[in-house]
Amino acid sequence: MLHFSRGLSALLITLFLASSLYAQDFREGYIVKLAGDTVNGFVAKRKEFCEFKMSEKAEIEKFAPTDLKGFGTKAYRHYQVKTLPVLNGPGQKVFAELIVRGTMNLYRHNDHFYVQKDTGVYFLEPAKKMVNRVPIRSNKFIGVLNSLMADCYQALTKLDYEEEEIAQAIIKYNTCRGGENELMKGKIAPLAVDFMLFAAIDRGKASLHRLEKFSYAKSISVPVGVGMRISFPRQSDKISAHLELQYDKKVFQVYDETTRNGALTRADYIARYSYVKLPVGVQYSFLRPSSTPYIKGGAVRHFALKVSGLVKSETEENGVVTKDTEEYDFSKKSGYGLWAAAGYQKQFGKSFGAFAELRFEQSTVFTYNTPGSTSRLNQLAFYFGIIL
What is the reported pTM? Predict the structure, then answer.
């Protein structure tokens, strides 16, 4: 249970670090300066500010709505500086996301919607609002839309206060008017799932602790596995969650010589361990997903399939050699651990990619069937595989 708590704590720390890195996520995009010229680079929206870099390694410039005409990310979000009306107060310049552009424009800011027709900007009051702490449904925003669309009446009656529904109503109106009509928000899936097939060259060393520490020689094995990578492209194209399932089989061996009362004993200690493990973690990519170095890490759980131990010994005393073979028991319990990796991935087209990484893992594994027995397995592995 202690190992599980440590692993969970490490995973939570990893997620926290990943969320901190997310705050630095920049997308390919542009800014529009007050003079009207467009500058391409990398942008990130920070509440009511825009951060901009000419290149991924350039210094960050910070802009307020009074400094620009707008900015946007490549093929997805576009922001314009607008003075939006507010209840019981003067309007304020903000970066408002442009959803639909045409005879009538649709904007979004802080989960509220605004429409612009001619030179006027109108607030669409949310369908639900709190009155004396009681949620009250209002269709006032539908009345505002019907009024603004009177020159090409749409007869809106039922409409949810949702971006897609309001956008479709405005696109239909713009089409009716025959003027400019463009859905500005790009089509980016909210969830992306990639699958991986991989193998590794793994070098592991097991240490068992009972009354004394007993270390086996390093074992070289070739684990194989499948994995799943989950990302949320609308939020970040640099952070993703990983889930893997691996199978491995290791043989640990160590030679030992002891002398007691004039008798010399030579022994080979052999341990065979086959298992599946379930690594879970978070990846942070430094550049664009198509070609980038990355780091990742998380927690892992081992599920022992088979554990066996054998001692082959020969004892020489007064010129007489006695040979013996003895089996010994291990506890077939599951183990927990932590892992971290650094690697590089590259996409070859939309549906195929490859990766290679160096990974270190430390975990508990099989132990002796005696009270107080503990273990540790350190693994350094080179992973390589394909992304589908």
Answer: 0.70
